[in-house]
Design a protein that fits this description.
Elements (H helix, E strand, L loop, with lengths): L14 E9 L3 E2 L7 E5 L2 E6 L4 E9 L10 E9 L5 E13 L2 E2 L5 E9 L13 E3 L20 E10 L11 E13 L1
Antiparallel strand pairs: 1-12, 2-5, 3-4, 4-12, 5-11, 6-10, 6-12, 7-8, 7-9, 7-11
Length: 187
């Protein structure tokens, strides 16, 4: 029987989608292009300006039950400060790592528009989720075994709102509460 981190599904193993949430407090900002950090009640958030391209840096762990080689999806969880239906442009630049070293030559960039109306937290439909290529993720590496905790895998990423883009036409600030990762898992 193949181990759980091969590109084929072992006989008798079922799959299901799992969700992982990376909260805003688990992201950091660099010296430039920073959104503003804020807290409202129990909600911590990054405040992204509507006219700038600002970025934060989440570390995305590769879950042990992720089915190697399968694609994953990500989307930001955010709200807007202006009550108006418009498009918000988010992007993710990512680089897979195993044992702290990059396993890809260049970073991958994915961008998309998300519908936002300013009346609450945006949970986008699947058609707006950003797709991570499974063949580039660390779980596909032959050295990564399900029970081998010496081989730590993660995805270094830069998440940004491109408010300066003509594709982002929402006039309000975006409060980013976190990043959701949806992946196919063994059960």
């Amino acid at each position: 029987m193949a181990n759980r981190h091969t590109r084929e599904t072992p006989a008798g193993v079922q799959k299901q989608l799992q969700r992982m949430f990376i909260p805003a407090r688990c992201m950091h900002a660099e010296a430039q292009n920073n959104p503003t950090w804020g807290v409202s009640g129990v909600n911590a958030y990054w405040d992204f300006d509507e006219a700038l391209k600002e970025e934060v840096y989440p570390i995305i762990p590769v879950p042990l039950d992720w089915m190697a080689g399968s694609i994953a999806w990500v989307y930001p969880v955010f709200s807007m400060t202006v009550n108006l239906y418009a498009q918000v442009r988010w992007g993710l630049e990512y680089l897979p790592h195993v044992k702290g070293m990059s396993i890809a030559g260049i970073t991958n960039v994915i961008e998309g528009n998300f519908d936002a109306d300013g009346t609450g937290t945006v949970i986008p439909p699947k058609s707006q989720w950003l797709t991570l290529r499974g063949d580039l993720l660390p779980g596909g590496e032959p050295a990564f075994q399900r029970d081998d905790f010496t081989t730590l895998a993660h995805i270094a990423a830069k998440l940004y709102r491109d408010g300066a883009s003509v594709l982002d036409n929402h006039p309000g600030h975006a409060y980013l509460y976190g990043l959701v990762v949806i992946y196919e898992a063994f059960i």
